[in-house]
Amino acid sequence: MDFGLFAIFFAACCAAAATGAMFDPGEWYENLEKPSWTPPKWLFPVAWTILYIAMAVAAARIAVLEGSGYALAFFALQIALNTLWTPVFFGLHRMGAGMVIILCLWAAVAATMVAFFQLDLIAGLLFVPYLVWVTVASALNYSVMRLNR
Q1: Residues 50-105: pLDDT tens digits?
Q2: What is the number of other CB atoms lying within 10 angstroms of the CB of residue 56?
Q3: Which residues, 6+ apart, have CB-to-CB distance to 111 below 8 Å?
Q4: Rounded to a whole number, what is the distance in angstroms from the first to the last CA of the chain?
Q5: How confident is the model at residue 127 (pLDDT cuts 50, 70, 90)?
Q6: CA R_g for the chain
Q7: Cα(125)–Cα(121) distance, rounded to whole angstroms?
Q8: Whole-number mean pLDDT of the chain?
Q9: Which single residue of 14, 29, 94, 115 could bond 71 by disulfide (Cβ 3.0 to 4.6 Å)?
Q10: 139 closest CA partner among 94, 99, 80
């Protein structure tokens, strides 16, 4: 693996992660009604740290391969949508808009995963937990939105 490429992709992931630090869920989110299956608060930073490292490793593996243009374009799309969701949901308190963004994110993550699988088995596998996490996050976004009309 090219560690320079890993560092660049990890920096992109860190930019996305920075929105989580800038737009803390805070009191607004704490006061919302949430489903009983909501993951514990401590799990979010742990999960995202692992996912961002896995995403950067996967992208670094793909970037050196011939024919990786679409795979990397999907990666760029998903990291942009990932970055956008937090300020829309937690910053603007726009649960409906957050739902639209997270559904687009889910599709972009799925497309990235499929494109990565076509080029490198390990890179594709590294995206599976991310798609699972975004699936849970989508269901959580939907549930919170429905419970707090």
Answers
A1: 999 999 999 999 999 999 999 999 999 999 999 999 999 999 999 999 999 999 99
A2: 24
A3: 74, 77, 78
A4: 47
A5: very high
A6: 16
A7: 6
A8: 96
A9: 115
A10: 99
Residue keyed to tokens 């995963």: 113
Query: What six digits make up the tokens of 86?
Result: 């937090």
Tokens standing for residue 58:
């996967």
Closest CA to 23 of 91, 83, 89, 97: 91
